[in-house]
């Protein structure tokens, strides 16, 4: 096939939190720059992947290739962290990715490979085929700074952080408090630590790093990353803030008995949406406290529920077991659904979050602070209750509450493993109606406009992605002239 536009290949690691923003990036490259885009998906669950593909405005927009599933059960400890499992899965997929790149090259040779955080080993394939290589961080610049900086610190600083619980001081950036640190940093004997250090070394070898943030959101961190005078600068590679990249709500007819149908009947900004992302779970006791907290607040809510797990905050994907007297899942207080039938809706396992957050009746979001959820809340001007569980979510919660002032967070998180019902009730009221929450509600609206400005045709994120596109165009032209001899 002959083309006047570059072909870019993107690689998405397993998990909706990785696939959704990679699809969005692919869409932007097609819609804004008319590139050809192939997305390689490493999927563990084809049904959810297909559901995301149905959200595309046009199924032919992107060429999506599912790489064959790999079984890593014999390669990782069954108790290994989810991050270790994903990284090993990505490693085992490399031969299939290589063959798939050879295969698409027969149609149209790709100019660049964009990998996400866990795909950095695939950059060797980009080198082999003389492609540009980019890393796309589907999180923020502060998280990138911690990841890229960690492998460079000496033993003394590492010990101060891990053992003496001192903050991790990153040149020019906000320190990471021990309480907020990445679990991957904490145990040098764990495989995740070793893998993570490798990521931190490999990511800055890319030709550029794309980040799901924007200039005005993290000006200090981005300036520190670009400060050529700083000896300890975390990365010397060009960073491109191209966000917020979020899935747009898909316009479709509203069914009366669906969650969207229910939202249609609620007053403006009256509903708290509660969700812990694609894999977050709470302990049994915490589920009960949260149920009572929502009930006591007397505010409307939509709650995406999953069966609790007492020992793994990232271990979702279990069957919902309804056996309460009124159909209330057995892990919620008995009669919860009946008592709240006029105020609340409980949705098992998965809900159309982009559509929900953009609905005018939503007034708040109790979120695990996954970065996609955070961006989806901000672009819709929805204030948050920050309830971080794992990964970089505690850093995100700190940024949202202490720096941006668009969320409230429980003080009890650091003291006790359970946030009690009265505290939850207080936070819901603060976000939804109390005078104390006025500042939070108005700041998130300002941030919404700022985010939309960054994405507009004269905005910083649009401009940033255009720079990446220009690099791809230049490389494509030189490929063409080489081919012509
Ligand atoms: N999501 C959704 N419905 C759900 C739960 C999650 O559509 O019931 C989407 C959500 O909109 C977001 C992604 O899944 O785009 C989750 O990504 P995030 O970074 O927030 O968290 P993760 O799941 O990676 O922890």
TrEMBL record:
PROSITE patterns: UDPGT. Keywords: Glycosyltransferase, Transferase. The keyword Glycosyltransferase applies. GO terms for molecular function: coniferyl-alcohol glucosyltransferase activity. SUPFAM superfamilies: UDP-Glycosyltransferase/glycogen phosphorylase. It is an enzyme of class 2 (transferase). This is Glycosyltransferase. It comes from the Eukaryota. Its EC number is 2.4.1.-. It holds the Pfam family UDPGT. Belongs to the UDP-glycosyltransferase family.
């Amino acid at each position: 096939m002959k083309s006047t536009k570059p072909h870019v290949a993107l690689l998405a690691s397993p998990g909706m939190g990785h696939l959704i923003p990679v699809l969005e990036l692919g869409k932007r490259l097609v819609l804004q720059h008319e590139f050809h885009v192939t997305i390689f998906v490493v999927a563990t669950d084809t049904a959810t992947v297909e559901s995301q593909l149905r959200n595309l405005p046009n199924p032919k927009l992107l060429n999506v290739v599912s790489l064959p599933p790999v079984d890593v059960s014999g390669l990782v400890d069954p108790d290994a962290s989810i991050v270790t499992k994903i990284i090993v899965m990505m490693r085992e997929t490399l031969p299939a990715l290589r063959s798939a790149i050879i295969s698409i090259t027969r149609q149209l040779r790709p100019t660049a490979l964009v990998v996400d955080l866990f795909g950095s080993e695939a950059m060797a394939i980009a080198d082999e085929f003389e492609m540009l290589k980019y890393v796309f961080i589907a999180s923020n610049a502060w998280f990138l700074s911690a990841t890229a900086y960690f492998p460079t610190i000496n033993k003394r600083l590492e010990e101060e952080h891990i053992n003496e619980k001192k903050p991790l001081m990153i040149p020019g950036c906000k320190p990471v408090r021990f309480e907020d640190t990445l679990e991957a940093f904490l145990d040098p004997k764990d495989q995740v630590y070793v893998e993570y250090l490798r990521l931190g070394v490999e990511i800055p070898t890319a030709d550029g790093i794309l980040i799901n943030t924007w200039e005005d959101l993290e000006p200090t961190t981005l300036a520190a990353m670009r400060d050529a005078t700083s000896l300890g600068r975390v990365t010397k590679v060009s960073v491109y803030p191209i966000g917020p990249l979020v899935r747009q709500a898909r316009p479709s007819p509203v069914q009366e008995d669906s969650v969207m149908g229910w939202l249609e009947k609620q007053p403006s900004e009256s509903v708290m949406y509660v969700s812990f992302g694609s894999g977050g779970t709470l302990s049994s006791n915490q589920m009960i406290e949260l149920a009572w907290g929502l009930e006591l607040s007397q505010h409307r809510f939509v709650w995406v529920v999953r069966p609790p797990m007492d020992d793994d905050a990232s271990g979702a994907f279990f069957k919902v077991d309804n056996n309460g007297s009124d159909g209330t899942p057995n892990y919620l207080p008995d009669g919860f659904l009946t008592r709240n039938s006029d105020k609340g809706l409980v949705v098992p396992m998965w809900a159309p979050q982009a559509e929900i957050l953009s609905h005018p009746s939503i007034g708040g979001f109790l979120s695990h602070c996954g970065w996609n959820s955070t961006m989806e809340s901000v672009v819709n001007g929805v204030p948050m209750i920050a309830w971080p569980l794992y990964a970089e979510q505690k850093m995100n919660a700190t940024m949202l509450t202490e720096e941006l002032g668009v969320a409230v967070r429980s003080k009890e998180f650091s003291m006790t493993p359970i946030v009690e019902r009265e505290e939850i009730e207080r936070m819901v009221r603060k976000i939804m109606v109390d005078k104390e929450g006025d500042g939070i509600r108005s700041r998130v609206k300002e941030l919404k406009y700022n985010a939309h400005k960054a994405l507009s045709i004269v905005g910083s994120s649009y401009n940033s992605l255009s720079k990446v596109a220009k690099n791809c165009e230049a490389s494509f032209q030189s490929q063409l002239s080489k081919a012509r001899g």
